[in-house]
Give the backbone structure.
Amino acid sequence: MKLHLLSCSAALLLAPVVAAQQLISVDSSRALSLVDPLTGTRTPLGTVSSNAGTTGGLAYDPTTDTIYVTSTGNDSLYTLDLSTGTATLVGGYGSTAFVMHGLEFDTSTNTLYGVSSHDNGLYTINTSTGFATLIGTSGLSSFTNLGYDSTNDVLYATNSGTDSFYSIDRATGAATLIGALTGPTNPNGVAYDAQNDRLFMICNSTDTLYTIDRSTGLATAVGSVGSSNILGLVWLPPAAPPVVSYCTAGTTTNGCAATITASAAPSVTAANACNISVANVEGQKSGLIFYSITGQNAGVWNATSFLCVKSPTQRTGTQTSGGTVDTCDGTLSLDWNAYQAGNPTALGQPWSAGDTVQVQAWFRDPPAGKATNLSDAIEMTYLP
């Protein structure tokens, strides 16, 4: 997922803001904003394309990196590209009477839920077709918004008719009162920040961002968001940290400088592939990829190579570089996820989000010092 602004003038603002916040809002006029979770201040991002009509709730599916937006005017589901503002139609809900105001994604079952202001029913929404299937009604009236607490596996709701906070039974749709919000009188967008275990809500009558005490329902003001009819709110996880290259590759007998790269940062849940590749290796030489979890290093290995990872280290399996003798067309590779799955006692296990790992390659080079040479290195940070 890439967060690019939709205009050159605004682009100057986004770079420092995105690093610190990931709370996104949309109002009924399709205006998108970044919301500062510490102050409530909004930074304009652009506008959702007009084909989406009147926009309502937002939801995010981290397994596919997809943002969904509901159209209360078109009674349809759309995917949203933040880099362009383009809304792409998934499909209609199956009725023009739904007015699907609330929208939320449940990561425990990979289910997209919606709440209709027509009957205040809880619906599952097919993310391939947009078709909505009724689970049951909540017993509430007016507008209901959803927020899924992934840490505690609870679906919550706010309701603008009662100005109160509820838990929602995902099997029946029934709402159970937790308590009055006390202060907000027109609650709308709800979003859960799993990183910091916070549930946010925006109220249109006070134009204020709040956090909600999930045990009592009490809302605490964060700050003003400014005048706007905000209906949708979603928390996006931080952008994947880059795979950082560091250290210096040794120069081999035939002038090769082996370079190591990774296709993506690894995930604790193996949500994405992480394939490590080493190019420019001496052809037809044995080698291996090894790693450390104790930090970067730059120790002298031989006349040109550096040991770029600190001990202790974990060696993966020995392999042959292929290619042609006395040339630099050899390669080494490692399916990181497969190696970790097949070696549950390997260094670093079990992994947690935020863990860092330093990776380097070693291979034979008989005329060189120690009869070997080393690549440069990468440092990867584990994602959830």
In short: Helices lie at 8-18, 336-342.
